[in-house]
Write a structure and sequence with these properties.
With about 525 residues, the protein is of the alpha+beta class. The protein has 18 helices and 21 strands. The protein has four domains: about 40 residues; about 110 residues, D-Maltodextrin-Binding Protein, domain 2; about 100 residues, Dipeptide-binding Protein, Domain 1 (Dipeptide-binding Protein, domain 1, Alpha-Beta Complex), CATH 3.90.76.10; about 210 residues, Dipeptide-binding Protein, domain 3, CATH 3.10.105.
Length: about 525
């Protein structure tokens, strides 16, 4: 998508204010006059109220629960933001802004944070939200035996307490300059104190009326929703459409108003379809092939290097992403992150190096790659290309296709070599903490290094920006040279919607999870 296509869509989307639009246009080098012509009358239009929104989302499974501690994939994360809110949220630039917390203030050494809560906010059951509810909700992810992925983020908390009716004080065992960002995590939805975490009762824009795991969710607008300029539609029906063809067909026939994870190969075709718009947003999201480093043969560094040199990233980006993304380099920090290590050499396709490391590893025989399009859009085709690339290095990859339903519970983090995706995180610390720290719940390569963990903890508490940047640089190098993930590409988020739907807020991190409260009908 060119910058002009992007601005044309942005002006129409209703996802940003006119000032924000003009600032983005200037950042892209577009003249004020041209930017004004793009904006046209788009910002004079007020969102309409009413209508019944239907969305088609992938990643739904029959094992899904409304308990936010269990959220693994896009479908249930999207449903979560229908019924719940966090203390803070991310804006279109992935910066934190107030949500249920009106403000937050750190101590001088960033080991204590005080969150002032919004007053007068009601849960769906009519109870007013207080600090006790926040403490209960956060502690749900900290309790002994919890399997919540948010536990990794919260492990530094030594004390969490209500210091007033609408004030929560968080005390940490070490400094963390990014602490408020943690509170934007989609697991940390605020629930009434003592409630069943799987009840779906929160402060969010919609009230869950019915929940059929792996099939659909139906929710109606919360009449007491506290957030201005959100929750425009009367109801939202969220359909589980794991199959790409089914999602595309549902959009074209009008069965749904918007779908996620459009195949880049079909974008041009959909652009020509009557009544359809394409929404593509550059992102921190990335597609990857994690190897379990606690299992042979991936416990051998040379084997991991062999597979990193055995993939032609540009070929995969060209054929799978079709220009809607960029080449990755086996670490998860995107090029626009302020702590991105730009000087790390690119892992280029090199069959000779791949063969050298494969032979040095002492391994023999084929390697099985478990894959499904549930892993990411085009994953099966990407695996087939990977197999062809590796064959030129004398490495045999057997591609074993698995069912989409159950992929995230039966294949990911279970099989030794598979496909996966990450939506990215707003800070380098959050990304590395949730997926690369030794004890992280979602460390899908099971890669463990004590020196990495120590440096990561030190980096999050370093308040000197230059020193912190060098620390994150060194962390990326460790993953690049030793880690258990092959990251061939960073992907754009690609949605397709009916042309009478607007309001989706573009963001480099997790665009679309809050679509239910953002979208509205233009006619």
């Amino acid at each position: 998508m060119s910058k002009y296509d992007y601005l044309a869509w942005l002006a129409k989307s209703g996802g940003v204010t006119r000032r924000e639009f003009m600032n983005r246009a200037a950042a892209l080098g577009v003249t004020t006059a041209l930017a004004t012509s793009f904006a046209g009358k788009a910002f004079a239009q007020e969102p309409q109220k009413g209508g019944d929104l239907k969305i088609g989302i992938d990643g739904g499974e029959s094992t899904n629960s409304l308990d936010p501690a269990t959220y693994l994939s896009t479908y249930i994360q999207t449903v979560g933001f229908q019924w719940g809110n966090c203390l803070v949220e991310l804006d279109e630039n992935a910066k934190i802004i107030p949500e249920l917390a009106e403000s937050w203030e750190p101590s001088d050494d960033a080991t204590q944070w005080v969150f002032k809560l919004r007053k007068g906010v009601q849960f769906h059951n009519g109870k007013e939200m207080t600090a006790a509810d926040v403490v209960y909700s956060i502690n749900h992810h900290r309790g002994e035996g919890t399997e919540s992925a948010a536990k990794t983020y919260l492990e530094a908390i030594t004390d969490l307490r209500a210091t007033d009716t609408h004030e929560v004080t968080v005390t940490l065992n070490s400094a963390n300059a990014d602490m408020p960002y943690i509170m934007a995590d989609y697991h940390l939805l605020i629930m009434p104190e003592g409630s069943d975490p799987a009840s779906g009762v929160g402060t969010g824009p919609f009230v869950i009326e019915s929940f059929e795991p792996g099939v659909r969710t139906f929710a109606t607008r919360n009449p007491n929703y506290w957030k201005d300029g959100r929750a425009h539609v009367d109801s939202v029906e969220s359909l589980v459409l794991n199959d790409l063809t089914a999602r595309t067909s549902a959009l074209q026939t009008g069965a749904v108003h918007i779908v996620n994870r459009v195949d880049p190969k079909t974008v041009d075709l959909l652009k020509r379809a009557p009544g359809v718009q394409i929404i593509a947003v550059p992102s921190a999201g990335h597609y990857l092939f994690p190897m379990r480093t606690d299992m042979a043969p991936f416990d051998n560094k040379d084997m991991r290097l062999a597979l990193k040199y055995a993939i032609d990233r540009k070929d995969i980006v060209d054929k799978i992403l079709r220009g809607y993304g960029e080449v990755g380099n086996d670490h998860p920090i995107p090029s626009f992150d302020p702590f991105y290590a730009a000087d790390i050499p690119q892992h280029n396709y090199d069959p000779d190096k791949a063969k050298h490391h494969f032979q040095k590893s002492g391994a023999s025989g084929p390697i099985t790659l478990h894959i499904s399009n549930a892993a990411f859009t085009g994953a099966v085709d990407a695996a087939a290309l990977y197999r062809e690339h590796a064959a030129k290095a004398g490495i045999t990859i057997n591609v074993e296709r698995t069912p989409e339903d159950g992929y995230w519970t039966e294949v990911w983090m279970n099989k030794a070599f598979c496909g996966s995706y990450w939506g990215g995180r707003p800070t380098a610390d959050l990304m590395l903490s949730v997926a690369y720290k030794s004890d992280a719940a979602w460390n899908d390569s099971y890669w463990k290094r004590e020196d990495f963990d120590k440096l990561l903890i030190a980096a999050r508490g370093e308040l000197d920006t230059a020193k912190r940047k060098q620390m994150y640089h060194d962390l990326q190098v460790m993953i690049w040279e030793d880690g258990g993930v092959v990251i061939p590409m960073f992907n754009n988020y690609i949605f397709a919607g009916r042309d009478n739907v607007a309001g989706l807020v573009p963001s480099p991190v997790l665009t679309g999870l809050r679509m239910s409260e953002q979208l509205y009908f233009t006619s």
